[in-house]
Amino acid sequence: MSEQKRGIVFDVDGTLWDSCAVVAESWNEWLRANAPEVDPVLTGADMRRVMGLTMTKIGDALFAGLPDERRYAVTEGCCEFEVEYLQDHSGSVYEGVRETLLALKEIAPLYIVSNCQKGYIEVVMKWCGIEDLISDYESFGGTGLLKADNLKLLAERNGLDEAVYIGDTMGDHDSAKEAGMPFIHAAYGFGKMEDPAVPAVQDIRELPDLLTRMFD
Asked: Is residue 58 classed as helix, strand or coil in its secondary structure?
């Protein structure tokens, strides 16, 4: 094995957990109190449709009928309240997350990069019980950068010579490709993969064997 510093980088939604239903609950609660012009009937399916997008693109998709300034203000309000709401309301953590990451930490340091708002990754780590396993993380809310740029930033900041990104959507795949990272598809998540040659797992617990082979 080479002396290169390696890293394993995770997406969040559709990869570590599914928070669509609870996020919809939080957004509806905020909308009822703060945006009377918006009908607060968002569902988990609505949130699943936009998971993985940046916050501005989520606002464009969900509140297209609002003027730009109001649309982004409403989106920002929902996102901020969402993080507060999630402090006491967990999403659905995929089975085996902590055990799998414990095994993976023996292979390489672990990281997270997501298009989420600031504060969201911290909440996810708490509910998944992996705060002690993640070496570093970055988000769109933290930098204002797109996922590919945050992947590059995290790799540079941590001196990674080689890293693999694990996510569930084509957007994750394309971001990893742009950042020069191999990609593993979390096929149990929200998205489909157009390229059948992309390595995939049907359960997060399959990752240790796959990554051991990839890093061999």
From this structure: helix
Contact 172, 183 (CB under 8 A): yes
With contact defined as beta carbons under 8 Å apart, do 167 and 161 qualify? Answer: no
Indicate if 40 and 142 belong to the same structural domain: no
Q: Following DSSP, what letter does each residue of 117-145 receive, concatenated? A: -TTHHHHHHHHHT-TTTEEEEEEHHHHS-
The string of pLDDT tens digits covering residues 10-60 is 999 999 999 999 999 999 999 999 999 998 889 999 999 999 888 899 999
Tokens matching residue 8: 């394993």
Instruction: Judge if 123 and 184 occupy the same domain.
Output: yes
3-state secondary structure of 177: helix
| Among 51, 103, 45, 113, CA closest to 79 | 51
Backbone angles phi, psi at 192, to 5 degrees: -100, 155
Task: Let me know whether 103 and 204 are in one domain.
Answer: yes
